[in-house]
Amino acid sequence: MEHFPLLLASAALLFLAASYRFRWYETPYTSKKRAHNLLVVGCALCCLAPCIAVFCTLPHENIAYPFEGLLENQNAYEQQFDAFLKRQIALDFAPDERILSLENPYIWDTRTETGAWYPWDRVLYDGQYYSYFGIAPILTIYFPWYFITGTLPAAGTVCFILCMVGILAAAALLVVLVRRFVPNATLSLLCLGIFAVSFGSLMFIVQASADMYYIAVQSGMTNLILFLLFTVLGCGKNGKTPRRVVCLFLAAVFLVLTALSRPNLLLFALVSVPLFLSMLTEKTVRPSRRAVKLLSFIVPTLLGAAFVMWYNYVRFDSVFEFGARYQLTVADVSTYSVSLALLLPSIYCYFLQMPIVQGKFPYLVLTYEPIQSYGGYLYTTWMMGAFAMPSLSGILLSPIARRRGGKKDNVKLFTFILAAFCCFLLAFVDICFAGVCIRYLADITAVAAVFSTALWFDLDTRAASLSHGKRFAVYAVISVLLFATILVGTLLIFENERRYLLQPTV
Question: What is the model's pTM?
Fold first, then answer.
């Protein structure tokens, strides 16, 4: 891997040379051509290779159940699974009386002074311990795995499964966005873009950092991308009503699973608003069919929302409380609030902060830059900005994404603007209520990678009317940005918050 940057640079030069020699930059993607679709599918499948490599490298032994050791030593998902099998919601171990006697047990120093044991990063509420980690992975992976094997999957296995699905879903989302909004996208750029999306989404580093924190992130990313994918398919102008009804039903299911993974990612539901409005105003479709499609999304969404609110209420006596404010962690999370003082730091930390370049593998080092201007405690650890992966800066192009096939397209414009807006808004929300960590950056990178890449394709198609030399120059610059993202995304598989691959014995 030490020579990977050189090999990738050589591949980029060969790609550009072949593109110029064979005029690949003039070949548009045609969805009706079988050869084009096979090539796209082949590229998406190739992106699974890093998933498999990481999975085979890191420990992933199944976990015996009932647990051979103490329940307290298991991660939050395993403890919650155990509680569900015992037909209870609270975790099956009792708080120490010294913790319960505290006036405010959520202050780290106060808890430490008691000398009492307590589970780190679990929730203490009304005299019982709970897990605030979303239960989507338990429903979609832990239970099926247990019923099939009689064991529980390791964190590495859970992240591997979710990453595989997420990578394929991200590639599919890019393709359906191209089909709808960038119909003349260049085939070679689309193929290259699939790789850039896979690496730029940070899904590989999330998988390489597998533990209970990253399971939540991976589950949120994957379900969010699936929600957006089936929303675009269901709200598309092509396809018969039954197919679109199924897609919208699945979109609702994955939206609920997103809420049961990372509730903050629900902000990205705003991206679907222009798509649903366009579906509801289709003049060529009868009102009754529009109503059926809308209900196929609304009904399961409302049922899922009712379940989520019930689950919250039986734990924390509030339908909107997911439990994070009661977690036993480094600070009293209930004191966190929106602070405009963190607006500029959120832009810097989540988008502009660059890693340090060094002379030895993996050549990049994440930076740790504490923020001093905040009035309270702010969790800060290893971080870099999204624009360190150059192609993700494409979200800044969203205000000019108005034309499709030579005509104005407001649905396209507002869809891409909302995608960019939600990335910046979620960065601000995350820094206010969570802090600064590359794990939180992954909340926005999947969406940013897909929509940025589609916007670069859109820019490339606008250059089609330029002279031969200028046309290729635009194509070449975009290609270099995509290759650079692949490079950075690959190195981050090794250089990340956990660094498991650099220290395999840890």
Answer: 0.96
48 CB-side CA count, 13 A: 12
**Residue 151: its H or E element:** strand 151-152
Q: Is the same domain home to 14 and 75?
A: no
Among 80, 115, 139, give the residue marking a domain's end: 139
CB atoms within 10 A of CB 302: 13
What tokens does 501 get? Answer: 């691959």
Alpha-carbon gap, residue 370 to 436, rounded angstroms: 9
415: which residues sit within 8 A by CB, 6+ positions away? Answer: 181, 271, 274, 275
Cα end-to-end distance, the chain, whole Å: 20
Is the same domain home to 336 and 187?
A: yes
Residues 6 or more apart whose Cβ sits within 8 Å of residue 23: none
Residue type, 407: K
| 505 confidence band (pLDDT: 50, 70, 90) | very low
What are 7-63's pLDDT values in tens digits?
999 999 999 999 999 999 999 999 999 999 999 999 999 999 999 999 999 999 999
**Diameter over CA atoms, the chain:** 77
Residues 346 and 405 in one domain: yes
* 246 touches 205 (CB < 8 A): no
What is the bridge-based pairing of β-strands 364-365 and 403-404?
unpaired
Return the exposure string of 372-384: e unless at least 16 CB atoms fall within 10 Å of the residue's CB, then b: eebeeebbbebbb
Say what the pLDDT of residue 502 is: 87
- Residue pair 237/290 in contact (Cβ under 8 Å)? The answer is no
Q: Tally Cβ neighbours within 10 Å of residue 170.
A: 29
Burial of 102 (0-12, 13-18, 19+ CB in 10 A): middle
Would you say 122 and 96 are in contact if contact means Cβ atoms under 8 Å apart?
A: no
Are residues 219 and 340 located together in one domain of the fold?
A: yes
- Kind plus residue range of the DSSP H or E element containing 429: helix 410-433
Determine the structural domain holding residue 103 and report its residue range.
64-139
Nearest Cα to 327, choosing from 108, 151, 479?
A: 108
Structure confidence by residue, pLDDT tens digits, 422-450 = 999 999 999 999 999 999 999 999 999 99
- CB atoms inside a 10 Å sphere around CB 506: 7
